[in-house]
Specification:
By secondary structure, the protein is an alpha/beta fold. It has three domains: 119 residues, no CATH class; 131 residues, 5'-nuclease (Rossmann fold); 78 residues, OB fold (Dihydrolipoamide Acetyltransferase, E2P) (Beta Barrel). The protein has 13 helices and ten strands. It is elongated.
């Protein structure tokens, strides 16, 4: 590795580290107080459970430290269960609760049947009742949690009716839309609500582009990093960097689709192929190019518009102009008006997958004022030369 490549790598590493530190600092500033309060409550709970075990001495434990150890183990197990439970969706919690309740009812019914039948001795019946209760509760819990996503909580209304829209408000940014840069302008307008999610694997891909040996790719990657830094500084946005990854998938597009399924979020991109594949997988996509086409001004046939004829068209006697948003305007009878601003009448509008094309016609009679841009037409220069020739002849006739 030469000195130039090493210096470029160090600059990108320092930039990425500073952005990562800013994100962590902002998240700690927002969520630090809540996290500290939670851990204070957990510590108090662990101390209370340990003290209760010392006072009660369960299972006939005579030594105090054995009771304290048992209470501490029980408290840690409860805390681990609580931390894992926080990551489970409300649907899975409801499914697990319903499944475990049905399992308990089934175990109680089987226990009553075993008790009435008298086919086993009393100790065996007691063991079977406890075993059935544990097995049925566990099976109901696992099956209910796995089938919880099939519940439609929005049908109950109230508190459950707002869960799905809240989760749908997440937007996942693709690498292409970050490099494009227009997402920062859209975020500034306030049209995007909810959390802006930036996956870690997208950041890795962006850093690889910024470290590329190709100068063009390297500039695009650095521009993407600048766009992310600009988005993170917006106070009205909730920017989150998630560590979720899918090692069994190699393509970043498929990882984005799987993350969209897991988070029930939308993907923001301008990649046409990713748009189609994501729709096939049932993941909603917001395409920046489609938004740009939708925001282009509406032009109706018969309207008059002023354009600058930039170059010659493909057909005979055609000129080509462009609007400020990049829309192509093909003008008939405008070949000789190249490099001039003229008024044209719109004849038709064609909407294609690549964008919108406007067709118009140039007519000298509808010009409001003579064009001022570009070189003077040859016929104008010829008329001026004719006038100069006529002036000496008029002077001689006047003298006679």
């Amino acid at each position: 590795m030469n000195n130039k490549s090493l210096l470029c790598f160090q600059e990108n590493a320092i930039l990425w580290a500073s952005q990562r530190a800013a994100v962590v600092a902002r998240q700690l500033g927002r969520e630090g107080a809540v996290v500290i309060d939670l851990w204070v409550i957990r510590t108090i709970f662990l101390c209370v459970v340990t003290g209760s075990a010392i006072a009660v001495r369960p299972f006939g434990l005579a030594v105090w430290w054995q009771a304290a150890l048992m209470g501490a183990v029980f408290g840690v197990a409860v805390l681990v269960f609580e931390i894992r439970l926080r990551q489970v969706s409300l649907k899975r919690l409801m499914g697990a609760a319903v499944g475990s309740l049905l399992g308990i009812l089934g175990a109680l019914a089987m226990g009553v049947v075993l008790n009435i039948s008298g086919a086993f001795p009393r100790p065996t019946v007691s063991f079977l009742q406890v075993a059935l209760l544990l097995v049925m509760t566990y099976v109901g819990l696992v099956v209910g949690a796995s089938k919880g996503d099939l519940l439609n909580l929005a049908a109950f209304g109230g508190l459950f009716g707002v869960e799905r829209p809240g989760r749908k408000s997440c937007k996942i940014l693709d690498t292409s839309v970050i490099i494009d840069g227009r997402i920062a302008d859209i975020c500034e307008t306030g049209f995007l609500d909810g959390a802006i999610v930036i996956p870690q694997f997208v950041l890795r891909e962006l850093q690889l582009v910024a470290d590329s040996g190709d100068s063009m790719k390297r500039n695009r990657g650095r521009r993407g990093l600048d766009v992310l830094q600009r988005v993170q500084k917006m106070a009205n946005l909730d920017v989150q960097i998630v560590e979720d990854d899918f090692p069994h998938l190699r393509e970043v597009d498929m990882k984005l689709i799987e993350l969209g399924k897991r988070m029930d979020a939308k993907i923001i991109t301008n990649d046409f192929n990713l748009n189609k594949v994501a729709q096939l997988h049932g993941v909603e996509v917001l395409n920046i190019n489609e938004l740009t086409n939708a925001l282009k001004p509406v032009v109706l046939p018969g309207e008059v518009m002023r354009v600058f004829i930039l170059k010659e068209g493909k057909e005979y006697n055609q000129g080509v102009a462009y609007l400020d948003d990049g829309t192509m305007v093909v003008v008939d009878n405008a070949k000789r008006m190249i490099s001039k601003t003229v008024d044209v009448s719109v004849t038709s509008v064609l909407q294609t997958t690549a964008g919108k094309m406007i067709f118009g016609r140039y007519d000298e009679r509808m010009q409001q004022s003579p064009p001022t841009h570009g070189p003077e037409r040859p016929e104008h220069r010829g008329r001026e030369r004719d006038r100069e020739r006529e002036r000496p002849e008029q002077a001689v006739a006047h003298e006679r």
